[in-house]
Amino acid sequence: MTNRKMNILVLGAGVVGEAVTHDLALDYEVSVGDVSRENLKKVEEHAETFVLDIREEDEVLSKMEKQDIIVGALPGDLGFKTIELAIESNTDIVDVSFMPEDPLALDEKAKNEGVTALVDAGFGPGMSNVFAGRIAKEIEDLKSLKIWIGSLPQEPQPPLYYKLTWSPKDLIEEYTRPARIIVDGEVREIDPLEEIEKNINLKNRTFEGFYSDGLRTLLDTIEVNNMDEITLRWKGHLDKIKVLRELDFFKEDNLDHTLKVIKNKMCYDSPDFSVMEVVGKGNEAQKEKMVRYHFYDEETDGFTSIARTTGFSTAVMTRLLIDYGLNDGVIPPEELGRDKEMFDYMVDGLKKRGIKIKEKISSV
Fold it and tell me: In degrees, to the nearest 5, what angle opens at C-alpha 72 toward C-alphas 70 and 78?
């Protein structure tokens, strides 16, 4: 691809889509489609906007076919369909949705149509995968890989000590979707709330955490004995969430009512922050080796940290696709991390946007 004034369609104008649009509109012709007119008003200064429902397939395909690249920033339950439509329209796509399906299932179809689909292109999954791919490249015999990740309010308020800054349905799904981890070389599915990890110390703060299903494509692309992802919360949150789930508040029939009630308890004034550590351990040249990546950001410039870390990661990966070009097929972010030049491109791009990233390599 060339670096001409390309046409990019962003699907979704929520907090992530807004940040993506703000970034990409600096250099490209951006249009945005969303079902919400209210969401579209937030980006109309930077892009052409129109009401668009991903379920109206003919209309969506008509819009897609006029674009050079699609950016999917829709809720997870719409992500797989978005990628399918992009492939059908023969348009490359960068997608950030937290879909329950395996995007790699579309790899052959994308290759047959000559389409690049860069998936899970956000914060986590996303940059967590990029760091994992880099670690797998830097440690010859990787034994373990662990991800700690979270976006939280700086001033947590009871009763849930959490602030809602992204899709509420996707948030609840983190607590209900079985988490896949690797133990002794085998993939296992576990209840995300079965074991709560206490007293996690990062960035001079103490958190609790639960197993989340964020490894996704890493389960197939990283060869390692043990690997898991822990999502961070302030202390006191997870015990209450566990009770709500046990009382069936998160069942499909009850979910809409539950969200109406608890959303009010998670909407209050507090800047947020995002933190992630990805640590790999293994052997190289008969010596033990550890590689650690630390990622940190705070709300600033009118964007929440979750919007910045996710949306700017998506934007930087979109720019990488434009500047470098990628092979046809479904491309998970860890494959970008294995390439040092692409890895540096993404890290440098995020640093330029004020996000702090540090690497530490040491003997264990």
Answer: 130
| 6-39 core/surface letters (b: 16 or more CB in 10 A; e: else) | bebbbbbbbbbbbbbbbbbbeebbbbbbbeeeeb
Beta-bridge partner residues of 273:
152, 298
**In the chain, count of helices (H) and strands (E)?**
14, 16
Report phi then psi at 121, rounded to 5. Answer: -95, 55
Average predicted confidence (pLDDT) for the chain: 94
Mean pLDDT value of segment 70-83: 95
Q: What is the DSSP string of 351-362?
A: HHTT-EEEEEEE
Distance of CA 196 to the CA centre of its chain: 22
Radius of gyration of the chain (CA): 20
Measure the CA–CA gap between 291 and 278, rounded to whole angstroms.
8
Q: Residue 120's closest CA among 149, 92, 94?
A: 94
Catalogue all structural domains in the chain, each as residue range(s) with its CATH number. Answer: 7-119 (3.40.50.720), 127-305+356-362 (3.30.360.10)
pTM above 0.70, yes or no: yes
